[in-house]
Amino acid sequence: MAILKKKEFDGYLKKLTMDSVVSIYLVYGAPFFYKEILEKLVSNISNLYKNSIDYKKIDGSDFDISSLIESIDTFSLFSTAKIVSLNNSKIFYSKKNESDLFLKVKKAYGKNEIKKAAMELLSLFSIGGISLDVFESKKKPGFSFAVNEEDKSLIDEIVAFIKQNNFVVPEKKDEQSILKRVIKRGFAKDHYLIITTDYVDKRKALFKIIKEKGVLIDCLVPEGNLYAQKKAQEAAVLESIRPVLVKNRKKLDNSAFKTMYDFSGFDLYTFFNNLEKLINYVGKRESITVDDIKNVLKKTRKDEIFQFTGSVSERDLQSALKFLNSLMENGFYSLQILSAMINIIRKLLAAKSFIKETRCNMSVNFDLFKKNIFPGILKFDEKLLNRSKEMGEALLCKTKKDAKTDLLIAGKSKSPYPVYLLLKNSQNYSMDELVKAVLILNQTDHKLKSSAVDHKIVLETALIHIM
With contact defined as beta carbons under 8 Å apart, do 461 and 315 qualify? Predict the structure, then answer.
């Protein structure tokens, strides 16, 4: 029926009626954008039915095509309509996407979600036509990407879990053909399917049938460093932040936007995270200035270690791995990087302890934080100094001097804004996860000093397990 560009989508929603809504939607492109569109689409369809909607989300990384079709066809006893969303779908993926899928395996494994990692690996095996017998015969798995020794060990451990639980490699089904037939047949009245994915193949019959029967929303943004591609990336960011600025009654002139873009680049999650920092920083003031941006984001540019620890603090694994690689390429020693990791985990633990002890509300803006919470942190730091010997021994056996400096939340500078960010970011981890991170870093320290394994792989593994 139609392919809409992202900027046309809000206009489409304004005209959406019971007569114009379609049974199938495909939203593809940048994940940041398609998640936003999915939320709006579900909300607007739900409003058409006065919220009498049965909404079922299905994770595209772990789904069975038969179960998906059953969900679409099953009627709800208590709702007028039904929406099924297939999120982060891999239905257009093929063998050439294997390396992307393996990153998902590693991420799930790093979070100790061993069953999810197993399901992801089985999905990867299915796409690649790989049998579990490959591992029993000690042959190399037939991936289309390079697998290092650390990756092989990880795969062996997950395969052992798979065998212990009698899981099997899913039958290689032609999911695209099956779904295409169901779409062609049509869904029950008032039943809707929304598919989100970062990758589509417009040559495939599935894409063509969705285009014929439904609505497609194109969230693609050109990748690359050519002038036209860069301009398109800037335009996509500018278009996306306007509603946020309006909602918060803030202004960002062209010079300020350019300065901010220089700091963040075309990384939508980083850009919006930085924008949130700036909105909190300026408080009630309307304009965000170039000076504000330089004051708040200056360390992002000057200090790669700060970028790296900031990613760890924000629990952004992809960025942390990117900055780790950059640090190693620029000559930082592995023990220097490990020291930075230890320091940020210590600070997050201290921040978490403060929040737990004082029960402070970290949903406040920066001005209120500075006025009402920060003075208590300075007093809390004094208590930490008094307990520094015991805590220093508990946390990776550092010296008294290191413990005294590293464990302070505010540090020597006593600057409130970095502390504000630290406390907010401490909520990305539970106390148990941070304590576990300490043990992981202790083991990493031992491996770096005693093992012949590539130090970069050792540090990457630690990050994946922590984040």
Answer: no
